[in-house]
Known about the structure:
- The protein is an alpha/beta fold.
- The protein has 2 domains: 2-137 and 261-292, Response regulator (Rossmann fold, 3-Layer(aba) Sandwich); 143-260 and 294-321, Rossmann fold (3-Layer(aba) Sandwich), CATH 3.40.50.2300.
- Helices cover 40% and strands 19% of the residues.
- The protein has 12 helices and 12 strands.
- The protein has helices at residues 2-15, 38-50, 70-82, 93-103, 143-153, 171-184, 197-207, 228-237, 247-251, 262-277, 299-304, 311-314, and strands spanning 26-32, 59-65, 87-91, 110-115, 132-136, 159-164, 188-193, 216-217, 242-243, 256-260, 293-298, 319-321.
- The strands form 3 sheets. The chain has a 5-stranded parallel beta sheet. A 4-stranded parallel beta sheet has the order 7-6-8-9, sandwiched between helices. The protein has a 3-stranded mixed beta sheet with strand order 10-11-12.
- Strand 8, helix 8 and strand 9 form a beta-alpha-beta unit.
- Helix 2 packs across helix 10 (262-277), helix 3 (70-82) packs across helix 4 and helix 5 crosses helix 6.
- The radius of gyration is 23 Å and the shape is elongated.
Amino acid sequence: MKRSILALVAVGTFLFPRLSGAQKVYRIGALVADDQFVPAFEGFKKKMAELGYSEGKNIRYDLQNAQGDRERLKKLAQKLVQDKPDLIVTSSTTATVPVAKLTEGTSLPVVFLSAGDPLRFVKSYASSGNNMTGISTSSLDLIEKRMDLLKEIVPGAKRVIALQVPGGVNYEAARRLTREAAKKLGLALVEVEAGGPEEIKSKISVLILRKLGEGVFVPPDAAVINAIEEIAQQAIREGLPAIGANVENVRRGLLASYSSDYYSLGQQGAVLADKVLRGARPMDLPIEQPFKLKLVINLKTAKAIGLKIPKEVLVRVDEVIE
């Protein structure tokens, strides 16, 4: 009888190995620079669930949001790295830079769900050469297309107000590409600078004025995120079309943008995370481009500034905000 029981236990262990030991619970640390990047994490969690990772059963998440505060961002990054999770996910170049520095030379895997300039922390798109992999937002690459969109929406535009934030992580590249795009389209740039969100808010009434230009171009940098609503409202008061760096900018009041969608990027990043958790080395996974780009128009804003969107633009729109 005793031998029979032992035999049954052995068979059960062979047929149902997961019952014989505790299932591994993966710990994922996540860092976003601001609320605007939270949709990337939401998309990430949704796709991870589809891939078989059930929160509370075989995976736990620790999401940290810096709310646009640079110093807080550094402290949160330090905390996440010190906790030594199985994987860290980030969203935005701004949130990824401190994590990249803190994990340099380590084997702690990092997947960035969105980064406007991945080459700040990886060797190349083919291979990071380190502990990182992820998704490029292509935000810098799309600057020319967004400038062209502004010209298409306002054919008579001659001058464009280009907001610049020297302290932003994408400042140098964004400024260069914005200048190149404007020159190619025959537009004169009126560059206005601010030190960050708080300075933008305090000086918004002199930064964005109709007498300075016929449109506003917002840079792809997390440094302006906390002031997006103020930028949008000032542009509306001045009757100016404002082109944002991403879809979320438009949902928060700017007129239009052509960009990737954070939620979709998060889902795309989850597939990379799954591969890493299964044993793949981040350096063996190429940096990916967005699978999908969206043209988004805020018709409520268009109406507020008395602007009629050309039919040639409307027929291409992927999402309309009313």
